Amino acid sequence: MFKTQAESEEFLRGFLPELEETPSIREVVLCPPFTNLNVMSKYLHGSRVGLGAQNVHWAENGAYTGEIAAPMLLEIGVRYVIIGHSERRQYFGETDETVNLRLKAAQNYGLTPILCVGETKQQRDAGETEKLISYQLKHDLVDVDQTKLVIAYEPIWAIGTGDTCESAEANRVIGLIRSQLTNDKVPIQYGGSVKPNNIDEIMAQSEIDGVLVGGASLEPESFARIVNYQ
């Protein structure tokens, strides 16, 4: 929940020129708050940057005050949507059942969902990481097309806490996630305090295909350094 429309435009003016030397194979997607999607869609038209939303409802329309439907996102050029983010699960009552409904709705309308899974510090300390993530994948991915999917591993305990998930450990867990999919080509991202000073090491790992970036994406120079990892 950052940036007004004016601030988003200012961000793009600083960010887009930084991508001129970025390898074309790298896919860049920005997922701003709903109020910024329309202005950013117009600004990004014709650029190499895709547009994503931070959530989507499972119904096409209806009495769901405060929710946004897939057709509303498609109309303004949105192509991706984050689903099941740890903050949605923690603060807003998101369950594996509702995550599954949102995933299927997104795909039914041609949106590519970015499914977030991951454990809390309490769950990790209890040795439940593998069990929890396996449970999330089993229930979240029921009847979901794994050829039109991105997954992000979020070690919740490493987001904004000062604790860090070692790159090798992130790689191990992402390998575990991949082993439980029917399509081992699903892009799997890492999302836990990704910063300019650790991106090169993260992206050197064999199982990690990309990153889901939080706070470090708010400044053009910081996010550009992440996009332009070495």
Give the tags:
single chain, 230 residues, alpha/beta, TIM Barrel, seven-stranded parallel sheet, 10 helices, 39% helix
Description:
- It is a single chain.
- The two termini are 29 Å apart.
- Strand 5, helix 8 (167-179) and strand 6 form a beta-alpha-beta unit.
- The mean pLDDT is 96.
- The protein has a seven-stranded parallel β-sheet with strand order 1-2-3-4-5-6-7.
- By secondary structure, it is α/β, with parallel strands linked by helices.
- The chain has ten helices and seven strands.
What is the secondary structure topology, with strand pairs?
Layout: H1 5-15, E1 28-30, H2 34-44, E2 49-53, H3 70-75, E3 80-83, H4 86-91, H5 96-108, E4 112-117, H6 121-125, H7 129-140, E5 150-153, H8 167-179, E6 188-190, H9 199-203, E7 210-211, H10 220-227
Parallel strand pairs: 1-2, 2-3, 3-4, 4-5, 5-6, 6-7
Helix pairs in contact: 1-2, 1-10
H/E element order = HEHEHEHHEHHEHEHEH
At CATH level 2, the architecture is: Alpha-Beta Barrel
Q: CATH H-level name... which superfamily?
A: Aldolase class I
Q: Tally of extended strands?
A: 7
Assign a percent range to the helix content. 25-40%
Annotation field: number of helices:
10
Please outline the major beta sheet: 7 strands, parallel
Rg, Cα atoms, Å: 17 Å
Q: What is the residue-averaged pLDDT?
A: 96
Distance between the termini: 29 Å
- Sheet-strand content, in percent, reads 5-15%
Order of strands in the sheet with most strands: 1-2-3-4-5-6-7
Identify low-pLDDT runs: none
The CATH topology label is: TIM Barrel
Quickly count the domains.
1
Name the shape in a single word.
globular
Which CATH class applies here? Alpha Beta
Structural class: alpha/beta
